[in-house]
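pipeline stage [seq->struct] | target=Nitrate ABC transporter permease | organism=Rhodobacter calidifons | residues=294
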Amino acid sequence: MNVTTLKPRQVPAPQTAAQVLPLPVVARPRLRLAALGRFVAERVAPPVVVLIVVLLIWQLSFSGGTSGLPAPTDVWDQSRDLIVDPFFVYGSQDIGLGWRVLTSLERVAYGFGLAAIVGVLVGAVLGQSALMMRGFDPIFQVLRTVPPLAWLPISLAAFMDSRPSAIFVIFITAIWPIIINTAAGVRAIPQDYRNVAAVLRLNQIEFFWKIMVPSAAPYIFSGLRIGVGLSWLAIVAAEMLTGGVGIGFFIWDAWNSSRLTDIIVALVYIGLTGFILDRLVGWIGRVVSRGTAE
């Protein structure tokens, strides 16, 4: 008898349900507003409050008619054009404070840039030798205490021109902290890094860019931040004597013309510019050192 073998019935596979993709999480407006409010409360509000208090004390202290210094309201009334429009041009010497600051910054860029290049290179060389550093360190310590204006007569006698003389004053003022900090950073490089460089047989240029600069970056940019501040101080002082259209000569000319309100406005410009320069060098240092430089 033939026995028919029954095949199992083919049951179709169940269809899988459609996959549901999660929607991207969008930050809620309330969270954004909370973060913005926290930022304002922690970073913006404190200096604004302090500024308002200082202005109130200043106004109350010098609002009398017998005061020798102008009050904030007097500064606004008499020097409003310098505050509202910093880039006006009415003549070769009658220009806004914005143009004067840019003129001074151009000289600072030349002097400080040259000091940064020479200072880092010299500091890197001296940091490699403890004997050389002991020999040069007393000389650096003596020269860095010389005031910027003390270098001006020497530079004028050497260059016979006010522009290169001012650049030299910036250079000679800013270079010392850069050299000293760079040398200290090079000496602080761990010995393990030097051993790795010896195993990899890095030449001097490769050692400088791959080992020395990243390791000593916090020290280098600390010196650069000090140097850029000294550069800005030096150019303002030098321009008072060398003339031109810089912010320093503007202050000296305003004093000779008894325009105290213009001097106060110029001081605010100088302070804000110095603050921006310091923050800019600090930001570059954090980028180069990946957050290790402050």
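stage status: PASS
auto-comment: Residues 204-242 form the longest helix (39 residues). The mean pLDDT is 84.
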